[in-house]
Amino acid sequence: MTRYALRSIALVYLLFLLVLPVGLICWTTFADGIGPVVDALTTPSALHAFAVTAQVAVLSVVANTLFGVGAALLLVRHSFPGKRVLNMLVDLPIAVSPVVVGLALILVYGRFAPFGGWLADRGIDVIFSLPGMVLATVFVSLPLVVRAVTPVLEEIGTEQEQAARTLGAGPWQTFRRITLPAVRWALAYGMVLALARSLGEYGAVAVVSGRIKDQTQTLTLFVEERFQNFDQQSAYAAAFAMAAIAILTLLVTTLLRPREDAR
Amino acid sequence: MSPSRTDGPVAAADRPALVRDGRPAAPPAGSPERSRSPRSPRLRRRVGLGLGLGTATLYLSLVVLIPLAAVVWRSTEDGLAGFWAQVTTPESASALRLTIGASLLVALVNLVMGTLIAWVLVRDDFPGKRVVEVLIDLPFALPTIVAGLVLLALYGPSSPLGVDLAYARSGVVVALLFVTLPFVVRTVQPVLLELDRDMEEAAASLGAGRGTIFRRIILPSLLPAMLSGTALAFARSISEFGSTVLISGNIPFDTQVAAVSIFGQIESDNVTGAAAVSTVLLLVALLMLVAMDLLQRWGARRD
């Protein structure tokens, strides 16, 4: 009896919080068929937003993958003073508000900040242009690759790496031939998570991009701007596109995630 | 994002450390490094460690540390009194009050509902469970602005259910509940999976009722995970921006949360005020991270 009560409570909660809202958006988007959706997603502004989003996301995933693998190796394979601090710092971006991220970057890289001014004198605009948006996205998705790779690195241990070293492999060769293949699924999992997070970032990018239509407008900013301008069809269509990407991400990560019950 | 994947202290203690406290430890007996030239590989290793550590620190500094330090620095531009004055302006204070109040409520609901959902997913079995299992993570994958739009469609002015929470504080709470849904579920679930059923059966055979078993056997093991998931949910609620933007209507003194208030202050060029409110959020975030670190140690000791 209790069992059915608990099950019903859980399912009703999820139905009203998750399933109905997301289902409704799909239904509303396609209320007038697929034609208007395609039209809304192929306007020049929408296509531009797609392109900007892809650019920012790919650059930040590449940066965070390089950093993530390096940091995971440092945290798992080495011991050094300040390791606990580094460990906590890696997690910090999860807890920082996206708006605070934006403000923080403006204060350092803005035109009127010392460092940002120095860069601007050399022709590099960070805030209100692509580099700032990449920085903001890198910030918010920073822990994902590290945290996906660390548990696997811990689990595989160092025996194979040591064996490779005994047989004369250099550090780079050991990494490329032994370590990297061993963590490849975890790494892929982390990268997919980071990609999804990067595609969907809104707050931090809203602050640093200046939200200039057709220039620094990403998909999330496009949704907000269209909605505020009472162009619901475009807003819903773009939101649906992102929801579809999110669901796809979930399916891919479900396949990639190391099985808890298999162990 | 998945909270159960954090680097636990147990794992840190278990792993074979090649270097401890910055000094190279003696290689284990029979290690190849002892028989071969002892200096050069070890030296190379240390140089490599130094380079790696330097790069990681530089990257973290440029992206995370220096910018965050700049926020704190800017907020105390006019001294601590100035900081306090900025935080306690009627608008900021009301936004902070709403944010903290709503986040506490959301954390509490998550503590109960998250544990309940994790319980159902682990101990119950029903058709479609795998779908539910995957759906739980949807709030992590869905962009926050889309989450806001989605909720506004169901709980907005044109709600098919006739429930209009737009521009109301309850709308803010629903948005926060949506984005924080996975935290407690995903921290409690692995612990519940690994829980030994023998103890429960032993208690049952000794005549303990279901309530007693839950309270005396299950709850104590789950508590660290439940609390650390709740802390995560609280930290996320405090800092949430995107999902509340559309549904709250951002009415100052009423439905404006702290993050939106910061955004407004940046737009109106009151950077010091924005930095002050940001510093408060950062302090809360830091507090939650420390709390989670302690909870993780506590949970590891309990095993």
Overview of this structure, please?
The complex is a heterodimer of chains A (263) and B (303). Chain A has 263 residues and is mainly alpha-helical. Chain A has a single domain (34-256), classed as Orthogonal Bundle (MetI-like fold). Chain A has 13 helices and no strands. Chain A is globular, with a radius of gyration of 22 Å. In chain B, 42% of the residues are buried. Chain B has 14 helices and two strands, in the order H-E-E-H-H-H-H-H-H-H-H-H-H-H-H-H. Chain B has 303 residues and is mainly alpha-helical. Helices cover 75% and strands 1% of the residues of chain B. Chains A and B meet through helix 1, helix 3, helix 4, helix 5 and helix 7 of A and strand 1, helix 3, helix 5, helix 6 and helix 7 of B.
What would you say about this model in short?
The complex is a heterodimer of chains A (263) and B (303). Chain A is built from 13 helices and no strands.
Task: Tag the structure with descriptive keywords.
heterodimer, A: 263 residues, mainly alpha, MetI-like fold, 13 helices, 0% strand, globular, B: 303 residues, 2 domains, two-stranded antiparallel sheet, 2 strands, 75% helix, 1% strand, disordered N terminus
How many beta-strand segments of chain B?
A: 2
Number of domains of chain B: 2
Question: Number of DSSP helices of chain A?
Answer: 13
Q: Mean pLDDT of chain A, nearest integer? A: 90
Radius of gyration of chain B: 24 Å
- The CATH class label of the largest domain in chain B is Mainly Alpha
Class from secondary-structure proportions of chain B: mainly alpha
CATH A-level architecture of chain A:
Orthogonal Bundle
Q: Give the uncertain stretches of chain B in residue-range form.
A: 1-38
| Total count of helical runs of at least 4 residues of chain B | 14
- By oligomeric state, this entry counts as heterodimer
CATH topology name of the largest domain in chain B, in short, is MetI-like fold
CATH class group of chain A: Mainly Alpha
Q: Give helix and strand order of chain B, one letter per element, not per position.
A: HEEHHHHHHHHHHHHH
What percent of the residues of chain A sit in helical stretches (DSSP H or I)?
A: over 70%
Residues in helices of chain B, as a percent range: over 70%
Largest sheet, strands/sense/barrel of chain B: 2 strands, antiparallel
Instruction: Report how far the terminal alpha carbons of chain A are from each other.
Output: 32 Å
